[in-house]
Amino acid sequence: MTTGPIPPGAHRLLNAPGFQESIRLQSEAFLQVNEAEPRLASIFATQQRWLMAHVGLSLHFQGESGQEPEGLTAARFLQRVHLFDIASRNTAAAFLGEMQHYGVVTQRPDARDRRKRYLLPTPITLAAIDTWLRIHLDTLDRLDGADRVARFDAAPGQIQHIQPMIADGLARSDVIRNPSPDFSHFMWINNGFLMTERFFAAIGHADAATDRFATSMKSMAQVASGLELSRTHASRKLREAEATGIIGWQDVDGKRSLWVARSFVEAFLYVQAAKLAIVDAAFAACIGEVSCSGNPALTSA
């Protein structure tokens, strides 16, 4: 299990009835987004890229809302990434260049200083973060029957206040930044996050005798399909995971299927609870919804 302080309220989420199934449905939702927009989904598909994307968006939204005198510039982005020790300057600069190359952000000259260039997320990028937030709000609503998604729809423009709070919470969370090795094994490979979502979406019931969860995945090709990850690279990372006991293959009634260790499932759920608690707190602070993670009724008996 991951160690380190967990955000307030995350334990209530972990103990909420139906939490594991709600996270499985959340994983399915993210995989559907990948199928529809694989290029955009790849921005969030490793730990480092995911955090840098949130940092960049937070700078943009803080500029738009007037929380900061300027929005997203290359200099401010590199400074913020360095502040949170997310990536080296060269890695951050390369990421920013890639985002411009693929049209994730575009440049706008400053009206008073033509040498200064602001970076603006394109409409499709803003739609992507809107979808990301909605998926998490929907998970929280599923857990307590609240109406966060409807309240979010009724408060246009609030994402510019909510997202920077989420980005700050994610960047400062040790649970998010340094999860258990059972989960972090996949965090740094291309589309590794999506691979873990695929594992989780495919899990079935646990085998109490072996502490393993069977999945519906039958082959290496199925694991790597649609993830812009070569079968060779996927095979190597999966063999490494197999050697450490995170995953493995089993034969049931003559059919081969993948299993994942309980330790992976628990680590995955722990990280999701921490992330959802951060999202829930930011939403509650900006829109005033009673937070799901602070609701004692969620705690199982």
What can you see in these coordinates?
The protein has 301 residues and is α+β, with helices and mostly antiparallel strands. A hairpin with a 2-residue loop joins strand 5 and strand 6. The chain has helices at residues 10-15, 19-36, 38-43, 47-65, 74-83, 89-101, 123-144, 148-153, 159-172, 174-177, 181-184, 192-201, 220-224, 231-243, 262-287, and strands spanning 105-109, 117-121, 203-207, 212-215, 247-252, 255-261.
Q: Sketch the major β-sheet.
A: 4 strands, antiparallel
| Secondary-structure element series | HHHHHHEEHHHHHHEEHHEEH
Strands of the largest sheet, in order across it?
Answer: 3-4-6-5
The computed structural class is alpha+beta
Total number of distinct structural domains: 2
Number of strands: 6
What is the rounded distance between the termini? 22 Å
Low-confidence stretches: 296-301
Q: Averaging pLDDT over every residue, what do you get?
A: 86
In summary, what is this structure?
This protein is of the alpha+beta class. It contains 15 helices and 6 strands.
SSE topology:
Layout: H1 10-15, H2 19-36, H3 38-43, H4 47-65, H5 74-83, H6 89-101, E1 105-109, E2 117-121, H7 123-144, H8 148-153, H9 159-172, H10 174-177, H11 181-184, H12 192-201, E3 203-207, E4 212-215, H13 220-224, H14 231-243, E5 247-252, E6 255-261, H15 262-287
Antiparallel strand pairs: 1-2, 3-4, 4-6, 5-6
Helix pairs in contact: 2-7, 2-12, 4-5, 4-9, 5-6, 9-15
